[in-house]
Amino acid sequence: MVTVDDVRSICLSLPGVTERLSWKQPAWFARTLMARMWEDNVLTVKSAEREALAALQPDLFYWTPHHDRSPLLLLARLEHLPPDELPELLQESYRLAGPLPPTV
Which Pfam families match (predicted)? Predict the structure, then answer.
């Protein structure tokens, strides 16, 4: 099963990502929020495929009414997330969160 430590390791390996608390949960930021623990074993990410993912895998992906106004936010149940899919999920979220521009 994917753990918060797995999420942390991948997030912090991406350029410019920092970790801080958001709503008393671990969260990772690029230019904006890229990932956050929503509750125990539930991860918030950004995805352009939210509707499709939730329709195809509702046991894994979903969102709450709280997320309706943010159409990129998607919740993922870590206990159902195959470990090999985590890097791709986080890389897409990183891209959508707006990675920091290179320093000159």
Answer: YjbR
What type of residue is 60?
A: L
pTM above 0.90, yes or no: yes
Domains (range + CATH), the chain = 4-97 (3.90.1150.30)
C-alpha closest to that of 17 among 89, 103, 97, 104: 97
* Model pLDDT for residues 82-102, shown as the tens digit of each residue: 999 999 999 999 999 986 666
Task: Give me 77's structure tokens.
Answer: 């149940």
- Residue 69 gets which letter from DSSP? T
Q: Beta strand pairing status for 61-62 and 18-22?
A: unpaired
Give the list of residues 6+ apart from residue 87 with CB closer than 8 angstroms, or none: 10
Closest CA to 37 of 80, 95, 98, 78: 78
